[in-house]
C-alpha cells in the first residue's frame, strides 16, 4: 500500500469514498448525506486550487483506485490559536479496513501537517461512531469536549 499526497486528477476517486463517512447510524435523525457533503465541497476546492490550506492524503495499491483518504485543513487551533490542522475526513473503501490503512493515513496526515507548521491535529467525531472513537483513542487523540445541539421550532 502506498500512502502519499493526493492529486487533483484523483478527485472522482476521492469523492467516491466520502459517503463512507455515514457508515454508522447518525444521531438525531440527521440526513446521512449531510455528514459528507461539506467535505466534498472542501475536496473540490482543493482540487481546483481555491483552497490552498487543504491537502489530501491517499492510499493506493498499484494501479487500483484510491482505497483510503484523509482530508486535512490547516487552521489555527480553536482555543489557543496555535498553528494547527484539522482532520476534515478520513474514509476507507471496505476492502481497506482492518489492514492498517487508516493508521497509515493518520500518521502521514500528522507528518504532513507538522511539515506545514501545525503543532496539533484536531478532529470531530460523532459519539455514535464508536468504531471511530476507539480508533482515534488508540492513536492517542484525547476527547476534549462534547458538542450539543437542539433543533429549534420542532416538537
Question: Can you give a write-up of this model?
Answer:
This protein has a single domain (2-138), classed as 3-Layer(aba) Sandwich (Aminopeptidase). It is of the alpha+beta class. The protein is built from 4 helices and 5 strands, in the order E-H-H-E-E-E-H-E-H. It starts with a strand and ends in a 17-residue tail after the last helix. The chain is 27% helix and 19% strand. It has a 5-stranded mixed sheet with strand order 1-2-3-4-5.
CATH class: Alpha Beta
What low-confidence regions span 5 or more consecutive residues with pLDDT below 50?
none
Mean pLDDT: 94
Biggest sheet: strand arrangement: 1-2-3-4-5
Summarize the structure.
The chain is of the alpha+beta class and 155 residues long. The chain contains four helices and five strands, in the order E-H-H-E-E-E-H-E-H. The chain is globular and about 50 Å long.
Primary descriptors:
alpha+beta; five-stranded mixed sheet; 4 helices; 5 strands; 155 residues
Topology, pairings included?
Blueprint: E1 2-5, H1 11-17, H2 37-47, E2 54-60, E3 68-74, E4 85-92, H3 101-115, E5 121-123, H4 130-138
Parallel strand pairs: 4-5
Antiparallel strand pairs: 1-2, 2-3, 3-4
